[in-house]
Amino acid sequence: MARTGRPKFKPTKLQRDLVRRLRADRWSQERIARVLHIDVSTLILRFGADLERVDDELRADLLRSMWSAARHGSVSAARWWLKRTARARAAAANRLLAYGSE
After folding, report:
1. Residue 49 domain-assigned?
2. Which of 82, 86, 11, 98 minimizes the C-alpha distance to 48?
3. What are 27-65's pLDDT values in tens digits?
């Protein structure tokens, strides 16, 4: 028996790149789905991994860029890096102190 209805949606590389860029720009899933002319459930089903990974990938790219700029003499990048690592160390120390007081 032949299937009826719409064919299964298959995302293209161009669409995946677009979803990543729009999500990186903090677009909602509803807005992204509208741009692609698909339902939000289809967006989540077909682009779920892209939607989840984009923030981590962007942060990793930013850290690599800032680290590289700092190593190549950018004073502002070096200051940014030092402030960021100081905040991370302070947060870790606070977690240790809070854990020890329980």
Report:
1. yes
2. 11
3. 999 999 999 999 999 999 999 998 988 888 888 998 999
* Boundaries of domain holding 53: 13-100
Location of structure tokens 């502002």? 76
Q: How many domains does the chain have?
A: 1
Residue 69 is assigned to a structural domain of this protein? yes
In a domain, 53, yes or no: yes
User: Please, what is the end-to-end C-alpha distance for the chain in angstroms?
Assistant: 65
Between CA 102 and CA 93 the distance in angstroms is: 15
Q: Is residue 3 part of a domain?
A: no
Q: Tell me, yes or no, if the pTM score tops 0.85.
A: no
Distance CA 98, CA 83 (A): 22
User: From residue 10, how far is each of 36, 52, 84, 96 by CA, in Å?
Assistant: 12, 19, 40, 47
Q: Compute the mean pLDDT over every residue in the chain, rounded to the nearest whole number.
A: 90
